[in-house]
Input
Amino acid sequence: MPAIIRATNLSKTYRIGKVDVPALRGVSFDVETGEFLSIIGPSGSGKSTLFYLLGGLTRASAGHVLIDGVDFAELSDAQRTEMRKTKIGFVFQKFNLLPTLSAMGNIEIAHEIGLGHKPIDREYFDHICNLLGIRDRLHHRPSELSGGEQQRVALARALVNRPAIILADEPTGNLDSRNSDIVLKMLCQSNKEFGQTILMITHNPEAAAVADRTISMRDGQIV
Output
């Protein structure tokens, strides 16, 4: 199958004071359409920097990221934003829910931003909420939800527009084993049932094991 994500000789260097600190050193790999790939490595290995580059949230110092054949380096900031809204769903370790909105509001706003010109698919919305076990928590604000419930809301937010790609950065990092299992099961189901390509960043070998394939990183390189 064709690569929906392609990283080619990807490097990122941060300037800290007068010192250049390399975070990525020439990383190259492909992710096929419909694949579930995990990227594993210790803290400081470059995993999160890679996540931000693949999502178009920051620019590479060198190399290229192609999403469905389109090179992020050739896009304006507005075009990159549009690519993220229409092609990619994000799941972050720290949830990043809006505190003033209910769980339902947090999910619906992602639809309004990405596909506001189309009515929300209520059948699909209900389906993912039921699978994630948050149906009876939709009218609660994030402060009224447990960490596991907040992450499940964040996952529903990432899924609601049916993006071709889900990028998940340590999605089980702050969760207990029960909620970790729910999130990982949903990512697997999104991959198998909905055909979404999943790229998951993790330091947890047990979480990484649910993927079709695993890439290991250390010191900004694939090992």
In short: The chain has one domain: 3-222. Residues 55 and 162 are 16 Å apart (CA to CA). The chain is about 35% helix and 30% strand.
